[in-house]
Amino acid sequence: MTTTAARTTTAADTRGVSRWAAAIVLPLGPAAVAVLRFVLPYYTTDDTKAMAAKVIAEPGRGSAVLWFGCLAVLTLVPAAYAAGRLTRRRAPRLTLVALALLIPGYLALGWLVGEDQLLWSGAHAGLDAGTITRIAEAAHPTSAIAGVFFVLGHVLGTILLGVALWRSQVVARWAAVAVIVSQPIHFVAAVIIPNHPLDLVGWGLQAVGFAAVGWAILQLRNDEWDLPALP
Question: Who has the most CB within 10 Å: 23, 65, 148, 227?
Fold first, then answer.
């Protein structure tokens, strides 16, 4: 009876798989956004008509933005959750606040990618920049709300998560610093001094920091990562 129960528990133990899944997923989202921001055919500071005209001129880059945006939307929330699982025991309050900002912020990214979908679809359908602009500017108010959630959530949330990594000492100091400085660099490159290569560096630093978090997760024993499955 005991042997059978033990075998059932072992067979149902997927903690090793979940650790590997977390380690793989962690850097994918930030890396996808890093490339997205680098190939973006327009600057965030451009007006809607300029964005539409640039997507019409370079539809290939507009399409690449959508592919990488799709990957980011699918992986950023699981990545934040996985990182939070690593820091929550030693920095519970910081982790709670960081995830309360990051997860809604990352979920809101879907609305922003939807705007790029509209620009690309309009260009692909042969619409002129003026027509695409009128459609884009008639967007539902939830788009603006999602934009606020994304900007505040991912910038402040990433900084706080980086501080939680520093305080919990679950990764090397350089990895925590990479996460902390990544989004301030992105904010400068996106809003203050528009610069796609610098934006690549900002999000790239988060990807590297998150990769270090994934490596730390792989070093854990299953019992350190999660409770075993019930027989």
Answer: 65
